[in-house]
Q: What sequence folds into this?
């Protein structure tokens, strides 16, 4: 109990003193997860919107597959990206393994299906409502994709926040492809895992607190966005 | 006098529509010419809304054909439709009105000028920046009318535009409809409200159980309908 209390006190000290080691880890975490989010959004949002409006044979199968991919274990994603990027792998010549780039790719692969599946869910109902009116205007499904993405912007922002939360909180993928190299590929989650096993509980706890604060902040933001959304959705 | 490039008259021949094995419209023939509003009347379930969607091209007929006085892609660009429940985009009042204009490829200034003119026509000029879906039901329907009117269609389909509105909002909608008709837009409108049909109609198409029983000038139809079913309908009896 005393251990926990003193660890907590040291942890707070580390955060409040803006310890450079902690700051470096936090900032890399945020940069990697944000870059992964942008990459995944560029793919996932249009794909989800397209699935919401398109009708083709096998569509149900694609949706099922995407929903299943939402539950991809991060460590398996890490393994797959590892195999692709390792020296003897198909993309080995790029020399990306154990770099932040590899971590960004792994997290993007992890959350792109989540973004696509949630986007599809959010926009499908809207498309049912809009379809007849848009066709009356002469807009087909292709033209509807940007319209739906724009009209769903507030709901999609909460989708993006969910994706960001998932990326920032996962440990398996970045551990496998990043290697948890201090000062280079060490992020909050991998640092927490390492410091805990080493017994440096204050540092692990400090990073854990920051991670929690970020997750809470993201959720509060999502809540606020839903408020704005309801004003426009009516 | 009609411009030579008019999309009207519109003719339907042998038009039929079935969905899921249920025949909704059968052997519909009618001709819609430029001029005063054409009102499609009949009981609920007579097939009025389906007929409107077939004419507008939202549904493909199971039988028969719709003929325009010009190429059908050109006809599609000169018609618009307003639905019973307005479908408004999650954008501002102005952005809603601009949307179909931009889609039609009009230059920016023309879009803005037309949108503002149309919004003034329906009395929403002071609400341009409001979220469209926050408007009252009546205002939403007026916005839907403005959005269609801004396209300056030659032909405007209205599907029960005042069915869910109170008398004041209904009156506002009817005034807009009459204004558009006076400006030369051909109105084709469904209603199950006989009093409304009397107020607006230039001619009447009477539907019963998926068939067109009568098409006649409004005055003639209301004074002396040709069929017993129409007479019963006008007396306010329950026909279905």
A:
């Amino acid at each position: 109990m005393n251990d926990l209390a003193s660890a907590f006190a040291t942890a707070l000290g580390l955060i409040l003193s803006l310890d450079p080691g902690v700051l470096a880890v936090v900032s890399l975490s945020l940069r990697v997860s944000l870059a992964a989010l942008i990459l995944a959004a560029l793919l996932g949002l249009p794909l989800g919107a397209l699935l919401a409006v398109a009708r083709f044979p096998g569509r149900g199968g694609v949706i099922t597959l995407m929903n299943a991919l939402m539950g991809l274990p991060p460590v398996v994603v890490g393994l797959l990206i590892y195999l692709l990027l390792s020296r003897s792998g198909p993309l080995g010549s790029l020399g990306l393994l154990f770099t932040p780039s590899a971590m960004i790719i792994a997290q993007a692969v992890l959350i792109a299906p989540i973004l696509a599946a949630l986007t599809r869910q959010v926009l499908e109902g809207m498309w049912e409502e809009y379809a007849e009116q848009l066709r009356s205007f002469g807009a087909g499904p292709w033209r509807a994709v940007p319209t739906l993405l724009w009209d769903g912007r507030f709901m999609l922002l909460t989708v993006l926040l969910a994706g960001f939360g998932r990326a920032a909180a996962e440990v398996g993928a970045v551990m496998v492809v990043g290697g948890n190299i201090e000062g280079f590929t060490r992020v909050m989650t991998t640092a927490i895992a390492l410091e805990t096993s080493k017994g440096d509980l204050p540092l692990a706890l400090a990073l854990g607190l920051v991670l929690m604060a970020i997750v809470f902040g993201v959720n509060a933001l999502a809540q606020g966005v839903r408020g704005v959304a309801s004003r426009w959705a009516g | 006098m009609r411009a030579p490039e008019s999309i009207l008259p519109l003719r339907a021949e042998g038009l039929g529509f079935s969905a899921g094995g249920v025949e909704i419209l059968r052997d519909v023939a009618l001709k819609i010419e430029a001029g005063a509003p054409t009102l499609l009347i009949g009981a609920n379930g007579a097939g009025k809304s389906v007929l409107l969607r077939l004419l507008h091209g939202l549904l493909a007929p199971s039988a028969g054909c719709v003929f325009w006085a010009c190429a059908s892609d050109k006809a599609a660009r000169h018609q618009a439709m307003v639905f019973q429940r307005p479908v408004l985009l999650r954008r501002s009042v102005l952005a809603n009105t601009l949307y179909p204009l931009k889609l039609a490829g009009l230059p920016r200034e023309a879009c803005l000028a037309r949108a503002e003119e149309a919004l003034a026509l329906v009395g929403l000029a002071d609400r341009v920046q409001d979220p469209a879906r926050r408007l009252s039901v009546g205002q939403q329907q007026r916005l839907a009318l403005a959005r269609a009117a801004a396209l300056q269609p030659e032909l405007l389909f209205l599907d029960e535009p005042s069915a869910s509105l109170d008398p004041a909002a209904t009156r506002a909608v009817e005034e807009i409809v009459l204004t558009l008709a006076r400006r030369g837009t051909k109105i084709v409108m469904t209603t199950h409200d006989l009093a409304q049909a009397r107020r607006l109609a230039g001619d009447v198409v009477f539907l019963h159980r998926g068939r067109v029983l009568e098409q006649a000038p409004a005055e003639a139809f209301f004074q002396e309908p040709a069929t017993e079913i129409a007479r019963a309908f006008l007396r306010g009896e329950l026909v279905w």
